[in-house]
Amino acid sequence: MPDFPAKHVFPQTAAVTPSGHLALGGCDVADLAAEYGTPLYIFDEQTLRERCQAFLREFQGRYPNTSVIYASKAFTNLALTRLLVEEGLGMDVSSGGEMAAAKAGGMLPVKVYFHGNNKSRKELGEGVAWGVGRFVIDNFHELGLLNQVAQEVGRTQDIMLRVSPNVDPHTHAYISTGTLDSKFGFPIGTGQAREAIRQALSCSYLRLVGLHCHIGSQVFETQPYQAAIRATLEFAAKMREEGLELREFSPGGGFGIPYTRNEHPPSTAQYADAITSSFNQGCQELGFGAPMLVIEPGRSIVGPAGVAVYTVGARKAIPGIRTYVSVDGGMGDNIRPALYQASYEAVVANRMDQPSAERVTIAGKFCESGDILVRDVDLPATEPGDLVALPATGAYCVPMSSNYNMAPRPAIVMVQNGVARLIRRRETYHDLMAEDVA
Ligand code: LLP
Questions:
Q1: Cβ of 300 less than 6 Å from ligand 1
Q2: Given this structure, which CATH class describes domain 115-297?
Q3: What pTM, to 2 d.p., does this model score?
Q4: 92 C-alpha vs ligand 1 centroid, how far in Å?
Q5: Which residue spans of the chain are classified as CATH 3.20.20.10?
Q6: Which of 235, 222, 216, 207 is nearest to 177 (CA)?
Q7: What are the DSSP calls for 24-39, one per residue?
Q8: Is residue 119 within 6 Å of ligand 1 at its C-beta?
Q9: Residue whose CA is closest, atom 22 of ligand 1?
Q10: How many angstroms separate the CA atoms of 388 and 97, rounded?
Q11: Is the pLDDT of residue 172 over 90?
Q12: Is the pLDDT of residue 5 over 90?
């Protein structure tokens, strides 16, 4: 069987079996659906490990003093955290919950970077007490609060400051963060970043180790990273007069992945080339030595490793307009099409050997007209019971899922070498009501 269209959007182990079924990690997707039910999220372990290794190899090969910190908001799961520990990555957490997951998965606290624009006193206290490596400070309120909390716990806490260099990453407005009009970070242009450095250096229980400037997510160009790095390093050079010592620097994450067949973002090597070369050059020109470079990939680690599988049910053909094929999941497990107009590829996992026969729109089962997973996709003729698979669903689908319409969240399996293991069981109706008090 020749490669199927859009194969580069699927996990590395994607293949078609002699009976025309999609296989992942050596497991027949139809068998997995029969065993675990649908909607089902399947993660390919080989792809996950390779993505971790690619970031370590490509960045450390060019700039040895690089730390790779997985942005856990993209997908948090205990089995995944264990895998990250084995691969030598750290973890970026943006809430007490993500921190608890990092801890439970065996992540060392020194490898944890705590982000967020409104960390609570409780979260700060838990983080300091656990020994979180870095808090990435987002605003003046938090600076004062963390200093107090660290004093109460009796520790000096390492921090970075998140600055906003006013660079447009040309991505969806909802996932763009480095521009002036953003809720995140201290703007450099307004003088607030300078003031933050002054205040941070005067906090006796905080130790300022560097600057951070995440510009956005699903960034398809390397130039915005270079612009943000240059602007932030130039700013850091000026801030020497305030007493700033730049030991660490982070351009965040945001590396793009292909969702559809015509998307070809830069490779990990190309991002690494652009980032390490402008970082090296900036550090040399501005006399910074070799500070630690911290990168925070989220989507680009887990996104390509995940495939969502749904069962086809109802069909509605509106002559001359459109045919809707409904599946048993939708915006409850993947809000991205409704929230960001995100596009996905789709295949019929039990008819991979059949040619496309019609153009359909794949609708979810939730009570919203906007619950459309994929618009206008060419598929083989489908019948109720067929399996529709959406690739590149490993990032920001499960973690942004909800119980809307009291839908239990899907099961998740990890596959490798023909073996599947459940890494999250499907929610039950009982789970849905377990927290109600009546
Ligand atoms: N570091 C920081 C400080 C971040 O805020 C983020 C993502 C990352 C790293 C990781 O970015 P990534 O490598 O995953 O692009 N829900 C949206 C994406 C939101 C990204 C939020 N911050 C989506 O579904 O596209």
A1: yes
A2: alpha beta
A3: 0.97
A4: 10
A5: 115-297
A6: 216
A7: ETTEEHHHHHHHH-SS
A8: no
A9: 217
A10: 32
A11: no
A12: no
Residues with a known catalytic role: 367
pLDDT of 178 reads 64
- DSSP element (H, E) containing 158: strand 157-164
- Beta-bridge partners for 210: 160, 248
Supply 422's token pair: 């459940």
**Ligand 1 geometric centre to CA of 381 (Å):** 37
299 lines ligand 1 (CB under 6 A): yes
Among 299, 340, 396, 400, say which to mutate for ligand 1: greatest number of ligand atoms within 8 Å of CB. 299
Encode burial over 142-175: b for 16+ CB neighbours within 10 A, e otherwise. bbebbbebbbebeeebbbbbbbbbbbebebeeeb
CA 74 to centroid of ligand 1, rounded, Å: 7
- For the stretch 198-249, pLDDT in tens is 999 999 999 999 999 999 999 999 999 999 999 999 999 999 999 999 999 9
Residue 298: CB within 6 Å of ligand 1? yes
Instruction: Tell whether the torsion through CA atoms of 162, 164, 169 and 173 is positive or negative.
Output: positive
Does ligand 1 come within 6 angstroms of the Cβ of 222?
no
409 lines ligand 1 (CB under 6 A): no
Query: For residue 330, which of 423, 397, 378, 426 has the smallest C-alpha distance?
Result: 397
- What residue ranges of the chain are covered by domains with CATH 2.40.37.10? 7-44+304-433
- 7-44+304-433 has which CATH code? 2.40.37.10
